[in-house]
Specification:
By secondary structure, the protein is an all-alpha fold. Helix content is 76%, strand content 0%. Residues 1-40 are annotated as: Disordered.
Amino acid sequence: MNDRAGSVLDDLQHKGEKPEDVRAHVNQKRDELDDGSDGLVDCKQEDAHEAFFPQMVALLKTVEILGQILKNQIATVSRAKRVELLQMLLKAPLRLVRAYFAQFLADKDEAQTELVEMLRTMNKEDSDEKRKKLAEKLLAQIMQISSFAFIAKAITSISSDELQEDIDSAAKKVGTPAAKLIAAGVQLDSPRDLPRTDLKGLLADIKDDFIAMRVLQMLTLRRLYMFRTTEQDKQWLASQSVLGLKFQHAVDMRSRTQKKLGQR
């Protein structure tokens, strides 16, 4: 995130402004935050690693704060403004994912070498080829989990029954499968009926995107842990190759006493 985005965060955290004033200030800054660049990869390569993580935290905090403002002040913000701000909130984490991937891939060879060395100290009997394949698998899992974490943060920041229609409109305006994934994640983050129509459209968009599919599976798994889901919906998820039916039943058995209210 660039200095301009950071200044918005500072204003929100430290000036003690009223929510109405904060909203007005955020609206003035929205073009700066949504100027088409991620702001996370503008520094020189040698400084990128040190700068990235504090910027990442600041951006996620900004998304959280703006999402909370929208949820708390929904009645005082026009629908057009809500959709506009939600577009910004959908785009910010997606830029973060792209910037994270760029940073990750830039350091991939070094990280893989370090993992191979670590695996060698843990098990000296394995071949170098086996250790290399395991290191590649671990790196792929790190990317998947990180992507899920960024997307899940955006979802929890804006998740609200009252905002669902606005979120869907914002996702359509952004128009990317990733934005639709966040919107679907918000729908999954509740005990409402499984959004089969939206999920089916999303699955068509991301069927060839391995990481996006993994994120959707994780979001669906989280829903299964949190809310009761009908057997018909479980069978539908299995028919769409989202999660296997036996696996869903196993999750149900482990979490049946911890679920929030939902479908029966």
